[in-house]
Structure formats: structure tokens, C-alpha cells
Amino acid sequence: MAKAGISLKGTKVSTLKKSRSTVEPGVRRRKKFDDKRQFILETALAVFSQYGFHGTTIEQIANSADISKTNLFYYFKSKEELYLTILENILNDWLAPIAGFDEVDDPKTAIENYIRLKLELSRDQPQASRLFCLEIIQGAPILKSYLNGDLKNIIEEKSKVIERWISQGKIKPVDPTQLIFTIWSTTQHYADFSVQVKAITGKDLTNKKFFEDTCQSIQNIIFNGIA
Amino acid sequence: MAKAGISLKGTKVSTLKKSRSTVEPGVRRRKKFDDKRQFILETALAVFSQYGFHGTTIEQIANSADISKTNLFYYFKSKEELYLTILENILNDWLAPIAGFDEVDDPKTAIENYIRLKLELSRDQPQASRLFCLEIIQGAPILKSYLNGDLKNIIEEKSKVIERWISQGKIKPVDPTQLIFTIWSTTQHYADFSVQVKAITGKDLTNKKFFEDTCQSIQNIIFNGIA
DNA sequence: GTCTATATGGCGATAGAC
DNA sequence: GTCTATCGCCATATAGAC
């Protein structure tokens, strides 16, 4: 009787309708509607990413967005729809950086670029990173099918690129998957654990020097180690 | 009016009373009481670490522990007390591994030991790791004072050890704090993101070979990099 | 589109019998 | 110590006026 968690019962994220997409008349009005929807989505992400789905109330989001509770329900028919739409939007951003992984043949450039892109994402979209983390920790009720499908395929594909580099002697032997996990964890850490990072260093990635130092430090360790 | 999040208003974790600690007669009865309390704590950790504070209901915990809701309230006067007690217990475990960091003079041994201990913790106490992660993501309302106090001091102390290694030429120049973050993130990743790890690799740290492979992979990258 | 009620249900916590 | 019953609050969502 799993009671808590989001009861999505097999809802496919990609199947989500944008709602109202069929209405056509009045392009101007339509744009205003979409803009406000977008604004609510961004506001809601900020709240959800801190308190989680259950810890967030519609009223909080409404207050942050300076609208009334009922008005929010005019734009999103339920709390779940709001949450799902956000998660769907995040996925693409989260996945984007790995796309350019086999474009370049030089592993050093490719991997250092990837590290930088992921770290930029942690800097520019820390809330998205945290929401994603919350989702995974809770067992990925919504994203599980995605993890087992698309993501798995992509990683297998990228792993082959890494293995080619190894067989060509361009990098040392290393488990490709473990290497990818290392990159993910080290870069996402600065978004997900930013409170801890800030408590200890007094800085976060919005600090330019700290960003560069962190980027180089991660790149250095992954390429040269410390020995 | 920050409404969500846990409304602890300055409650100091360390000030928590164990409740009933003053009652003396009947050592046998007392032990039974404590045992049951302990059992509830362990059960509750499992639930809290998946669904978070707000996503977890007392009823869920009670069901998991095979007791009634009311009976649970006999052992813990509120949901918050239950949660706080768990968090308090976790902290010590989480911190323990770093203690033996300056005992040994050889950096390779010390750091490889530390990585292994942290990874063992991710294997043996994944729920604790996830609850800790949830807490930090939400802004560490309860642990903030700890992060800024004890933890900061410990890290500064350990950083000096690392800097001594560097000045002695035993390891390459590296920002000590960044090195520690790298170790934390890479090892904790296998607990916090275990669902994702399992989706991609089909394994988790309870698999002996996978544990050893992961441990060596992390140790290798941190010491030798991939170049 | 936006507002003021209000319905509805769930959950933390308590009362009081045994 | 454990149970049954229940209180009271709060959060999601809807109805219906403007």
C-alpha cells in the first residue's frame, strides 16, 4: 500500500498535453496566456525544488507568483499537472550537455567541455538539478521509465565513444560508466549541496573565480589525479 | 511567511531530550521500551529517507513497524521529535569516517581508506545518506548551524593535513576543500542516486564485485586521473 | 480571467476505555 | 501499553458571481 509519493499510476511524461493547445482564435491572448503559464512554471520550480512535491503548497507558489490560489488553478488544473510539466521541461536541459560528446575526437577537449557544461548547468539551473535529485532519491516514480529507456541507451552509446578512446590509447583504461558517474556527481554536487558548499567555503558557483577554480579542479583531478 | 519546511524555529538538535530518561524503576521494562523505540526509529528512517518529512505520514511508519498510529505516539510525542531524533543519530555516522584522516602519514593510504569508508557507508546506510541529502537540498533548516560550526571546523583542520602533504611534495597541488568535495560527491552518489545507477548498470553496491570495481575506479581516478 | 466562498478529504494528535 | 473513536486543522480543488 505505497501511499505517499506522487500517485502517477503510469502517466507517461511525454504524453502530457499542453492543455488548451487546441484553442486557436486570438494569437495575442494566447501568447499572454502562455507567458503567464511560463512565469508560474518558473516560480513553481523554485518552490518545488526546495520543499519537494509534498512540502510545497499551492498557496506558497501562488504567493510567490503574486496570484491567487484559484487563479493558479485556472492555468493548471492540478498540482500534479504543474509538477509534471516542470519535470518534463527540466529533462531536456539536464540531458542536453551530453549530446556533443562524440562530435570531437580529442577526449581531453570533449570531456573537459562536458564537465564545464555540466558545471554551468549547476550554476544556471541549480533548482532544476535539485528537483531532479529529489525525484531520483524518492525512487524516480515518474522518471523511472525514462532512466531505464532513453537514458540507458544514451549512456551505452557514449560509453562506446569512451571505449574507443581507451582502445586507441588516448586515455587510460577506465570503466566508462563509472567515469560518467564521476563527472555527474562532482558537477551536480555544487548545485544539490550548495548550502553545504557555501557553509564551508563561503562561496557558490555564481562567484566567477570560484566557478573557474572549481571547474579546473574537477578537470584536473579527472585527468591527472593527485598522485 | 515561509510555511513549508520543518518549523523548528531554532530547536537545537543536541538539546533533544531522550524522553523518559528520568524514569528509573524496572530496568527490564526500560530496555524493552528503548528497544521498541529503536526499532521505530529504524523503520521511520526507511520511510522518511524515501518520501521526505512532508511526504511521509505517521500511518505509513506505523504500518511499516506493525504498530498502530496511537501506539507510535506513545513512543514519540510528535512527528517532529521522531524526525529530529533520526537526524541526530545519522550525523555521527556520517561524520565518523573522516576522523581517521590524519592518523596515517601516507596520503595514499589515508585517502584511499577514506574513500572506502565513505563508500561502505553508502552501501550500508544508503537511507541515512539520502535523508541527509534531502535535508541539505531543502536548505538544511535543521543542520545549518552544524554545517557552519562543527563541520566547517573539521574540514579546515583536515585541509591543513592535505596542505602539509602538498608542501611535502607527497601529492600534487590541489585545493583541499575541492578534493574533499570530490570524495564526498563521488561516494555518496551511489547511495543518493542508486536508482539511477541501478537503471544504467543493473547493479548497486550490495553487489560485491560492483562495490570493489566502484571503489577502485574512484580511487584510481582521484589518484591517477585518466590522462 | 479573477475573485469569494465552500466542499472534501487527509493527517497529526488527543481522549479515554481496557 | 495498546486500542477505538474522534477532534481540528490545513491543503487541494470546485462552484459560481463579477
Overall description:
The structure is a homodimer of 227-residue chains. The first copy, chain A, has helices at residues 27-55, 58-64, 69-75, 79-95, 107-124, 126-137, 144-167, 176-192, 194-201, 208-224. The longest helix of chain A has 29 residues, at 27-55. Chain A is built from ten helices and no strands. Chain A is mainly alpha-helical and 227 residues long. In chain A, helix 1 (27-55) crosses helix 6 (126-137). Chains A and B meet through helix 1, helix 2, helix 6, helix 7 and helix 8 of A and helix 1, helix 2, helix 6, helix 7 and helix 8 of B. Chain A binds a DNA duplex (18 and 18 nucleotides) through helix 3. Chains A, B: Pfam families: TetR_C_3, TetR_N. Chains A, B: Residues 57-76 bind DNA. Chains A, B: InterPro entries: DNA-bd_HTH_TetR-type_CS (IPR023772), Homeodomain-like_sf (IPR009057), HTH-type_TetR-like_transc_reg (IPR050109), HTH_TetR (IPR001647), Tet_transcr_reg_TetR-rel_C_sf (IPR036271), Tscrpt_reg_YcdC_C (IPR013573). Chains A, B: This is TetR family transcriptional regulator.
